């Protein structure tokens, strides 16, 4: 690496380190399991609004709402919606009551880490935030208010990322599994995933 690239890389890492802070998995209130046990999952509708900005820039922390490099280049909004759909669907499989419900999720932020950050950042965070709401699948009646869920997750970087890749633990799998667990906790029949942590990220 020449001197110019070394200086540029060092400045980028310094800027990223300046984004160190507290991150969280959080929501205002989980649902009552005595209520959710009467529900049966009919559908999950995950949307990514066209108004959200998307970046495919391979920099340390692109300034955009949607940053996703965990799949081949394509429609990033559609890829993110599919991840959210799968994670929430898996998390809601425990709903085995008699009342069919639809779970709607709207992505507010899905800022995963870039290859550049994975390769050279000292730490990183998948910064994920979305709204979620349950409605009656037959009548459309709202059964819960729309609630914001923060589902941040520590990212693997450096040697940890290499080890995860060798073991088939991709970013996509980790994030999908995480959304699954957060959904279970929110619905009241899984372990409560709410917590805070400190790390470097956008």
Describe the structure.
- The protein is an alpha/beta fold.
- It has a single domain, classed as Rossmann fold (3-Layer(aba) Sandwich).
- It is 33% helix and 28% strand.
- The protein has six helices and nine strands, in the order αβαβββαβαβββααβ.
- It has helices at residues 3-17, 33-36, 76-91, 115-120, 158-166, 171-187, and strands spanning 21-26, 39-47, 54-55, 66-67, 99-111, 125-136, 147-151, 153-154, 195-199.
- Strands 1, 2, 3, 4, 5, 6, 7, 8 and 9 form a nine-stranded mixed beta sheet that branches.
- β4, α3 (76-91) and β5 (99-111) form a beta-alpha-beta unit.
- The longest helix is centred in the C-terminal third of the chain and has 17 residues, at 171-187.
- The radius of gyration is 18 Å and the shape is globular.
- It starts with a helix and ends with a strand.
- Residues 1-18 have low confidence and may be disordered.
Largest sheet: 9 strands, mixed
Overall SS class: alpha/beta
Provide the CATH architecture. Answer: 3-Layer(aba) Sandwich
Low-pLDDT segments, ≥5 res: 1-18
CATH class identity: Alpha Beta
Tell me the radius of gyration.
Answer: 18 Å
Secondary-structure element order, N to C: HEHEEEHEHEEEHHE
User: What is the CA–CA distance across the termini?
Assistant: 26 Å
SSE layout and pairings?
Elements: H1 3-17, E1 21-26, H2 33-36, E2 39-47, E3 54-55, E4 66-67, H3 76-91, E5 99-111, H4 115-120, E6 125-136, E7 147-151, E8 153-154, H5 158-166, H6 171-187, E9 195-199
Parallel strand pairs: 2-5, 3-4, 4-5
Antiparallel strand pairs: 1-7, 1-9, 5-6, 6-7, 6-8
Helix pairs in contact: 3-6
